[in-house]
Design a protein that fits this description.
This protein has about 400 residues and is of the alpha/beta class. It folds into two domains: about 130 residues, Aspartate Aminotransferase, domain 1; about 240 residues, 3-Layer(aba) Sandwich (Aspartate Aminotransferase, domain 2), CATH 3.40.640. It contains 13 helices and twelve strands. The longest helix has 23 residues.
Length: about 400
């Protein structure tokens, strides 16, 4: 019997691994699977992005290791994109860092910030990798419950004083996965002031910056902290540009935090293939028509799915952002989202993500990812109708 590190113990329970097993059983039983459990876009990456990558492939100078200074053109493109979108100046040399997807940032930053036993303040429900990075760093987690009556925003004044005394890190992420909530700039200003008062570093995971359907654009955390005093923001090419498999992201923010994250990265990896970053440069600096098309597509899917749920008697608030539906479970499933999702996929072939998989406060909900065309979504709802009514 091998004795492995204790840091792995909190990572052993994974609801999504259990759901994968349930999906496998459904396939084995002959079910035609409609998978709405994963937020992986089914849309193609823009053609000019693929062209930039394709043109890089025959060039042998792109085939070697890519170190930090070789990413300068990408960092400049990311800084320019950010400045154009949010109106805040960014130094591409000291305030931008390429990431292998934004998830790498949330996994590695706690290693640079936390000492064993320090607290991290995390959203509950929240994206699972946020907790995973804290556990790997030996930190403790204080979950900040997100409730519908509070518009799925945490109540910062409810965090206990003893926890605050040991807290070094807060992670926010809006538009929010899984609740789809958008945080107003006033909340970010409150969070920045709170973290400055208590000497807490603030990470904002921002993958859905472009995926909003109504109203004004979701704010950047740096609009509330333009001096970048305690904040760092993580971006990804996965959602806006349908480049999930390309694993390109980047961090923008406080220069000291960027440098610390770069030190962690240096012991773990180099960077992506240069051709992939050339594609990312084309995405950020070229036509944004593909982003507009993606937003329009997900808006159509949202409307079709919400209408379909209403027709089967399942009333759900209409989300204004992200690519998800966050639905409160009907009776008798209100306190057993895992059982609901497991039995749903085995009975109908429709796979969804149980709210409990995102944290204790996610219990009683289910998340549907809008990663299929409307006709397939309507087929999924038709299959769910008899199951929900039964």
């Amino acid at each position: 019997m091998l004795h492995l590190a204790k840091r792995l113990e909190p990572l052993q329970s994974n609801v999504f691994a259990d759901m994968d097993q349930a999906k496998a059983r459904a396939r084995a039983a002959g079910q035609d699977l409609i998978d709405l459990s994963l937020g992986s876009s089914d849309l193609p990456a823009p053609a000019h992005v693929l062209d930039a990558i394709a043109q890089s492939l025959p060039d042998p100078s792109t085939h070697g290791y890519l170190l930090f200074h070789g990413t300068q053109s990408f960092r400049q493109a990311a800084a320019h994109w950010y400045q154009q979108k949010f109106g805040i100046a960014v130094d591409p040399e000291t305030e931008v860092l390429p990431l292998i997807g934004s998830q790498e940032g949330t996994a590695h930053l706690p290693l640079a910030i936390l000492n064993p036993g320090d607290f991290a303040l995390l959203l509950d429900p929240g994206y699972p990798s946020h907790a995973g990075g804290v556990y790997l760093a030996g930190g403790q987690i204080y979950p900040m419950p997100l409730l519908a009556e509070n518009n799925f925003l945490p109540k910062l004044d409810e965090i206990p004083t003893p926890v605050l005394a040991q807290s070094k890190l807060m992670i926010l992420s809006y538009p929010h996965n899984p609740t789809t909530a958008i945080a107003p700039l006033s909340f970010f200003q409150e969070a920045v002031a709170f973290c400055q008062q208590h000497h807490i570093i603030l990470i904002h995971d921002f993958p859905y910056a472009d995926l909003y359907f109504e109203g004004t654009a979701p704010p950047s955390i740096l609009q509330a902290d333009p001096e970048k005093s305690i904040s760092i923001e993580l971006f990804t090419m996965s959602k806006s540009y349908n480049m999930g498999g390309f694993r390109v992201g980047y961090a923008i923010g406080n220069a000291q935090l960027i440098r610390a994250l770069r030190q962690v990265k240096a012991t773990v990896d180099f960077n992506q293939y240069r051709g992939i970053l050339n594609g990312a440069i084309a995405a950020l600096s070229g036509s944004q028509t593909g982003v507009q098309t993606a937003v329009h597509t997900f808006r159509q899917r949202r409307d079709a799915f919400i209408q379909g749920l209403q027709q089967i008697g399942w009333s759900v608030p209409c989300p204004t952002a992200t690519m998800y539906i966050w639905a409160k479970l009907p009776e008798p499933w209100t306190q057993n989202s895992i059982a609901f999702c497991t039995q749903l996929v085995e009975a109908t072939g429709v796979a969804a993500a149980p709210g409990a998989g995102f944290g204790k406060a996610g219990e009683g909900y289910v998340r549907f990812a809008l990663v299929h065309e409307p006709e397939i979504l309507e087929r999924a709802i038709a299959r769910m109708a008899s199951f929900v009514k039964a």
